[in-house]
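Protocol step 6 of 9: fold each sequence in the batch and record its structure tokens directly after the sequence line. For illustration, a two-sequence batch is reproduced in full.

Sequence one:
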Amino acid sequence: MPIKNLTLTCVNHPDHTLTRTDGLGALSMVSKNEDGSTTALPRNGMPVVFFYCELCGYVEMYAEHRTAIAMLETAGPPANP
């Protein structure tokens, strides 16, 4: 969903603000082997921040970098673990 007025909203519930999860997740890079199989490369990847809708479970993620984190801090309180 596009970020509007520094707020993330659910695609299914446009009037509902998404909640940010605590901590970070990660997207791991994957390499393709000669036999066509793949191998996950956990040392290579990108840290991400997850947001979700408490009504339907819709999830969005964004690359974690300082500008994005500061901008998205207003997108609901972090969830309790």
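Sequence two, same batch, same settings:
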Amino acid sequence: MTIYVNEEISGNGSEHFGGVQIQYLFVHLITIGPDVFIADTTNVDSLIRVGWLAFGSADTYPGSESRVFWSDRIWINFADYLWHPMPTNWPGNPPDFTVWASDIRWALSPGTTANLLVVGI
């Protein structure tokens, strides 16, 4: 297990860590901005409008320079959020519980800060 990102984040930003296999990420909210709402009054840690993260992979598009291609957004829905990839299984191979990435980017609601921890192999 290797920690690729462990930092306090806010606003819009990104981090490059090279082409690696990501196993999971944790987000722990430190400050909740004024645009964030409790989604379910029976579960006060269930939130909406916190922000999102996305993994990317640096590659060269044919006939072009290297650029980062981004995957779908991962919406942050809880004050303490865990994300891991859906396992994939190719015939004759053991299940794969990782996703390849070289970058991560984020956009958090104004006034929101969080600790981001990205772990892989």
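Proceed to step 7 once all outputs are recorded. Observation for sequence two: The CA atoms of residues 32 and 71 lie 26 Å apart.
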